[in-house]
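no rush on this but wanted to send it before i forget. theres a chain ive been looking at and ive put its sequence and its fold in C-alpha cell form underneath. please have a look and point out which stretches look like helix strand or loop to you. thanks a lot i owe you, the record is right below:
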Amino acid sequence: MENQKLWGGRFSASAAEILDEFNASLPFDKKLYKQDILGSQTHAKMLAKCGILTQSEAEKICEGLEQVKEEMERGEFEFILSDEDIHMAVEKRLTQIIGEVGKKLHTARSRNDQVALDFRLFVLDSNDNLRVLLLELIDTLLEIAKQHTQTMLPGMTHLQHAQPVNFGFLMCAYVSMFARDFERLESSFRRNNFCPLGAAALAGTPYATDRFFTAQTLGFIAPTLNATDSVSDRDFALDFLYDCSMIAMHISRLAEELVLWSSYEFKFITLSDAYSTGSSIMPQKKNPDVPELLRGKSGRVYGNLLSLLVVMKGLPLAYNKDTQEDKEGVFDSFETLSIALRILKDTLQTMTINTDSMLKACKKGHLSATDLADFLVQTCGIPFREAHHITGKAVAFAESLDKDLSDLSAEELCSVDSAIPQEAHKSLDLEASMNSRNSYGGTSTQATKTQIESLEAWLQLAKKALQDSKEPQNAK
C-alpha cells in the first residue's frame, strides 16, 4: 500500500493506525490555522523576493492558502487524522487546490521552525488579548475605588480585625496586583517578539533567504539569533504560562474576598442574582459559585505551567517530539483566563456594596487600639512598649464591659491607667483613625485618592503602550 505521508519517501510501509492516533497533534493544533496560513503566505512572499520562487508562483500559493483559510472558517475543511498536524493538513489541501506549485512552499523551511512560528504568534496574540482584559478589569476596580474612598471597613491581618481602612484603598491594592500582571505580560511580549521562521530544521538553510523581511512582515522586532535555539525554545510559552499563573493567583485572592464578604458573617457585599446560583435542596441558599470557580481555576492554570516545565526539563538540543505537548496547556490557560477576567469584571460591576455592614463591622475588634498607643507615645512621651501594655489593659477593660474600645467614654478610658489623659479619648474615633494614616500609600481618604490618581495615570500610559505594541501587527 502506498504511503500517503508527505514525508513518506523513505518509508516502505504505512504508519500503524494507532501511531496516527498517538502521533497526531491535529485535533488540537488546528487552532493555529490562522497563524499557519499567515506564516506560509509570508514565507512564499519572501521566497519570491529572494528569487527562489517566481512572483506568479508566490501569488498562486498565497491565493490557494487564502482559499484554505476560507474553507476552514466556513467549516468546510475536512481534517484527517493521518495528516498529523495543521501544517501538513494545510500543505496537502493547498497542493490539491493549486497543483505541483504547492509543493514548493516548504522550500527553505521545516515543520520545526514552522510550528515555532505558529505557536509564538498565538502566544503573542493571546498576550495582547489578556492585557486588554486586564485593563478593563483595572478600569472597573478603579471606578469602585473612586466611589468608596470614605467607606470604612475593618482592615485585616491573619483574617482578624486590625485597623480601619476604606474600601477604595483595598480596591487599589488589587489594582496594584493586576497592574504588575500587565507589566509582566508586557515584558514577556517584548522579550519574545522575535521570529523563528527561517531557522529550518535546526541549522539554518543553504538557500539565500531574507529572515529580516519575514520578521518585519509578520510584525516581529527581528529574527531569532540562533537556529537551534529557535526551533527548540519554548521559553515564550513558559513565560506566558507563568504570567497566567500570577494572574490566576491574584484573581483567586480577590475571589476569596468576595466569598467571605458575601457571607452572612460579613455581609459586606451582595452578589448579583445574575452571577450567583441556588441550592437544589435548600431554597434559601444563594451561592457565590462565580468567585468559587474563579478561585478553583487557579489550580488548572498552575498545572499547565508545571506540566510544560516538566516536559522541557531534560530535552537535548534541538527539536524533540516532546514539545508537541506544549500547546494544549497554553490554549487552556488562555481560554480559562479570558473568561475568568471577563466574568470577574462583570461580577464586580453588578455587586452591591453594603456600606452600613462594613461600618458596623468596624465596631468589632478594637480597631483604634493602635491609635491609642500611638497617641500615648506622641503626646505623652511614653515608650511604645509601655503604651502597648496600657492599651492592652484598655482593650481588656472594654471587653469586660462588652464594648468595643471605640465605644468607651472618656471617663471609662481614663479609669484604666493614670497615664491616660482626657484628650486621649479622641484617638479612639474610627474615622480619625483611618484618616490619620495619611502617609504615602496609606489608607486615609486623601492618600487613597492620591493612589487612584497615580493608578489612573498608569492606566492611560498602559493603554497607549498596548496600542503602540499592536500597531506593527496591523501590517499583517
The two ends are 43 Å apart (CA to CA). The chain has three domains: 17-104, 111-147+154-209+221-361+453-464, 368-429.
